[in-house]
Amino acid sequence: MAPSKLSITPKGGTLIEVAFNPNTYSISKTVEWRTTAGGASTDSGANAPITSFGGGGSRELTLQLFFDSTEKGPDERDVRLQTDQIVRLTRIERDNGRPPVCDVAWGPEKREDFPFTGTISNLKLANVSVTADPADLFAQADAVLEFSSPAATVQHVELAAKKKKIHVIGTTGFEPPQMAALHRAAKQTAIMLAPNMSVGLNLLLRMVEQMAHALDADWDIEILEMHHRNKVDAPSGTALALGRAAATGRGADLDHVAKRVRDGITGARRRGDIGFAVLRGGDVVSDHRVIFASEGERVELTHIATSREIYARGALRAALWAQGRPPGLYSMTDVLGLTG
């Protein structure tokens, strides 16, 4: 898709243009249009066809626009400078008590056929910076939240240790040598590692451990997980964490009792095993079910995530909790006060 352009011209003022490709960082480049009158039909989003206005009456425009701070405008001005110019257009003028009237257009480059004339009454700025320099990021941040790949996380945790910065890690799929790197870094700074940042899921981990402790090996434990079609590791890090919780409750080593694959003539189930089953499909965020099955009865504990926002909220909670903590490798169990 050709680059799109936002053009704002205050009456009697200078044209402000911001150009970018909606396919790049499309989630963070969103324009939302709202009007107070005029019979407008609204649409929003990076690829939206904009608002079609009809009728009369006063109109006010609410603009929400997120910029990648590394992008440059058509004349190489920094996007932040352009943002500051737009912010000034929302300020009330002394003579009439309202922001200045502007002509606003949004559309593909060289095709501005969605004009709006009115005042920009509300501008929300995310102030999100994008950088390709992790060292600079760790130098400026108080805490870094990471959901990436094991290889990248190992590189970044070394920076966290060097800069003595809090590192909240939600990455999964670490191999033993990579875990060793995290343990080394935790001797120098606070590292909070959790395969799942959800508060509800971490409460489930504690419940699974307690149930496994209370129920003997006559109760078979099976863990079923389902995720979206694009997830690359299996079983999920969360499913393995649930398995470890169950094994801990029974005083067992998960590596010795885990049964991850069943296919063909497998024979009878071995007493004390903890089984795993994996499903992939659609856009499922995260489903986990732990089954305790015995003769004549079955207990199932389930956690279903319908939004990834829960992981962001949990990670922020962990970062705030870690402020002022001594070096160490912490978990969400520590954050939630469930230790001991």
Q: Could you walk me through the main structural features you see in this protein, from its secondary elements to its overall organization?
A:
This protein is α/β, with parallel strands linked by helices. It has 3 domains: 121 residues, no CATH class; 87 residues, NAD(P)-binding Rossmann-like Domain (Rossmann fold), CATH 3.40.50; 107 residues, 2-Layer Sandwich (Dihydrodipicolinate Reductase, domain 2). 27% of the residues lie in helices and 25% in strands. The chain has 9 helices and 14 strands. The chain has a 5-stranded mixed sheet, covered by helices on one side. The protein starts with a strand and ends in a 5-residue tail after the last helix. About 18% of the residues have low confidence.
> Mind telling me the C-alpha Rg?
26 Å
Low-confidence stretches: 20-63, 66-77, 110-114
Multimeric state: single chain
Distance between the termini: 56 Å
Structural class by secondary-structure content: alpha/beta
Biggest sheet, spatial arrangement of strands: 2-1-4-5-3
Record field, number of beta strands: 14
Helix-strand pattern: EEEHEEHEHEHEHEHHEEEEHEH
- Averaged pLDDT: 78
Q: How many helical elements?
A: 9
Helix content: 25-40%
Largest sheet: 5 strands, mixed
Please tell me what the overall shape is: elongated
Estimate the strand proportion: 15-25%
Number of folding domains? 3
